[in-house]
Amino acid sequence: MKIDNNPCERAIRPTAVGKKNWQFIGEAHAGNRSAIVYTLIESCRRHGIDPFAYLKDVLTRLPAATNWRVGELTLGAWAAAQKRVVTIAA
Predict the structure, then answer these.
(1) What pTM was estimated for this model as a whole?
(2) Buried-most residue among 51, 84, 87, 90 (CB within 10 A)?
(3) Where are the domains positioned within the chain?
(4) Rg of the chain on CA atoms, in Å
(5) Number of other residues whose CB lies within 10 A of the CB of residue 44
């Protein structure tokens, strides 16, 4: 069995291609913040979740969330809650 990392390479290609264009993205910490956002978006895509729906819901609820409830906003917990909502609605 041949081991390769082609799926990973394909997943990061858009970021690698744009890296030169984004080299001077703004202030010093903007690159770190954009990396976090790209990670969230790609994680959503890999799990079959609409990134816009996830980020819109989580960023709306996050300011009112307590530290005990932040776990509900993780990608896995959020996806499970969405499945339960769809099941209940059906």
Answers:
(1) 0.67
(2) 51
(3) 1-46, 50-90
(4) 17
(5) 19
Query: Could you read off the pLDDT of 4-31 as tens digits, one per residue?
Result: 777 777 777 776 666 666 666 677 677 7
31-88 residue pLDDT tens? 777 778 888 888 898 889 999 999 999 999 989 988 898 888 999 999 998 888 777 7
Bin 14: left if φ > 0, else alpha if -120 < ψ < 50, else beta: alpha
Number of residues that make up the chain: 90
Q: What is the DSSP string of 5-69?
A: -HHHHHHHHHHHHHTTTTTT-SSTTHHHHHHHHHHHHHHHHHTT--HHHHHHHHHHHGGG--TTT
CB 66 within 8 Å of CB 54: no
